[in-house]
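Q: Could you write out the predicted structure for this multi-component system? I'm mainly interested in how the pieces pack against one another.
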Amino acid sequence: MTDYLPIVYDTNAKTLSLSEDVKLSDYKDLNLEITQLNTLIKDLINSNYDVPPPPTKESYTKNLSMMIKKMHASAVASMRAKKFSEAAKQFTVALGLSTARFKFESFQGTITEVMINLAGRADANMMMGQWLDAYLDCDLMCTLAANVPENHLRKGICNVKLGNLQEAKSDYERGLCFGADHPRLLGELANVNKLIAEENGEL
Amino acid sequence: MSQSRYDYDENSETWPYFVLTGLIVPLIPTTISYVWDKLSTSDDDDDEKSNDRTDNWFKTYNHDTLSKFKSNIQSKKLFTKKLLFIIIGWILVIYLCILANSIDIPVNESNFNPWKILGIDELADEKVIKTAYRKLSIKFHPDKVDTSKMSQLEMDQVDNLYVSINKAYKALTDETIKENFLKYGNPDGPSDVKHGIALPKFLIDGPTSPLLVLIYILLIAVILPLVVSSWWNGVKSYTKQGLHVDTASYFLTELINFNPAKLTQISTVLKDISHATEFQLIDKSLTPSKVESLLLSQINRTKLSPNDELLKYKVVSIAPKLILGYIDIASIFRNTEICMKLIDAHRCLIQALNIESSAKINKYKQILQLPGVSIDKLNTLEPIYTLGKLLKKPTISPSEFLSNDNYESILKYASNIPLIEPIDCKFKVPGENYIPPASNVHINLKFFIKSPKQLSKPELSKLSKNVIETQLNELETIENLKNPFKLVEDQPKIKLTNIPPYFPDINYLKENNGWIAFLIVQRDAKLAESPAFLTRVDLSNLKLTPDEFLKNSDAIVSTFKIPLTSPTPKEEGSFQFRLILKNLIYFGSDLEIPLNLNVEDKPITNTSNTKDLYEIEDPDEDSLAGAFAQLRGEKVKKVEYEDDSSDDDSDDSDDDEDGNDNDTLNTSDWTDIDTDTEVEEDALDK
């Protein structure tokens, strides 16, 4: 006898779901996969194609990109006007737009759009002194694009402000791997080294 | 079976030797290994006594049960099965020796001893032999002995005795008989080969023989297969790192299903650990959730019921070993995140500290790992987060900061925690001063061990000459080039300077204190190599006073080398790494160093015009290799004919090399043909 996974198909909504007979806590991973599958199916149905066109550089929803750009521009304007909390909100909206892209489209543009907005939101949070929120964005940026020294600079600054000096030091050092003479990174590294020495009672 | 062709041990004269041999064969190696173990650990014990025991001034919340558990382990370590075997074994050996000594072996064909028969010393000369023989032969001559009152049996005995006296005399005097005796142990010359069984006859032929057969069957058909299969199962059910296979496969599935979107925490890795099969082997009642709660109660320092408390110690004692096994598997997946959390979990279990429970505890973790310090007593308004700050430049007096009467002992404990102060860290290929492509490279880290109370690091020029010559600058001797890791291996094993009070198994700490080293690729922040362990370091710098450390030349430089399993890249370029050293026991003794691997391809150039001594010479003109070299257009060595005058010859060869005129072409053609035919003939012959 084969054991079947506890999955139920809803013909009306055209979605899968976990059977109600089993505990959700036992099937957390399955539930995650079901959600992912539902998202894909929804996008497929909404695309109005039997088979979605192959994801090329050209074939993507340009409207969405325009909207993201506009949102980003207005967020930057808010930053200039020093309305940081408003800017953070606008960046969040832009971020939501860029992640809501149709799943069968070219993915290439998504990362850059996400990165721009994340960087903006991190900066806005840093200006407001929301170091923890900023740190989380920076951490994500360092994972998504490790070869941009500025990402590590941002993360390092957040770590200094959060009191994690050793982590900040390794952030700056990692940033310097991708831009050996980044003046700001070098300056911050010297700074954090001094702070660490002070914390260790060396100075 | 009555007409057996074997000799039995009727007089029970052989079995003691038989048993003795069987006993000594396993006993001697066991004893040697036991004594060796004891000797090698006794050094540590001496050192331990010199350390201040934390028990004297600080008692943990669970002191009574914990110390009972600890002493239980220690006594178990002292009275092992091995020791019991050794003691009983040697008693038996002594008994058997006495027994074997007391056995009087009667003279018969198989053990002929002419000296014993004549009652003389083995070193006696001919004169003594003769007098002894004469006396005995007179005494026991059949004609001289009064046989009238003797039975037939007694008469036979006397006859036999006289014969053997004669034989013994001849064996010692007559040349041929003496030779027979020396060769075969018997004056009559070679006798039939006999097989003896070191068991008395009644055991085999008597009513007990079925019992013996039963023992044999049991031994061969039951016990032997059982022992072999249990050994094989043991081999099969544990991995090389000592993890149970089921545990290893559980860890493996966890890592395969690793979700990078989820935050890895100490509590999550402890949850993973709690599924290990090893816990069920301790006690069947230990379900994963129970184990998890026990592990959490260890790091939260909560007291449980006496029964659970005992279970907790058992669980906590083996958990660190499982964590190290988990790290080993996680490093194959190059998973930095899990490895770092596992190390933190390892330290949390040992120091009984939950650094995730609050930001404050995380911040003050270096101070809180000290015995007798707790978060509610600590003055958390002061920014004293590190051991260095506490010992060197506290913002308020330590007694006020720690609010503990034993603050002096606490500070002493803190100053015994070893820190690493790096001097130099680089990639190194033995015998080269740059990194060539596709070469075997190792990381060479030079550092000072220092106490948190010691300031900065000494200037290298102030170190003693000996240290500079041997430890700081390694000489490129043949020995060092052959085994670049010898310097590391020569350093003593790290000794446990403090005894962390909350961890139940001191023996584990003694074996596993030190640092674990991870090499991380900067580009993707993943592990480049499996972790290496820094276990050999001289900690004598800890005992120096800050002044001695800084100004005088007593400081010792230590070395750590990590071999890289993969060779350097084939193409030139710069590759960035990060070396992370994490202490397995203490917080605040970690090290992170960025490392640059510059692969350069320097062509080997002959700067001088002098000929390379070890260069392979051009092949001879008239050899097969020479012929092929000529076909390829390479140089060959000209053949010098003996009958030619030397002057002419040298002229000729000069001409040949310079001009390559017709003459040489001809000769080379001829040599070609010659060699070809030779080859063909060879081939035909075959």
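A: Regarding packing and overall arrangement: The interface with chain B takes residues 29, 142-143, 146-147, 163, 166, 169-170, 173-174, 176-178, 199-202 of chain A (CB under 8 Å).
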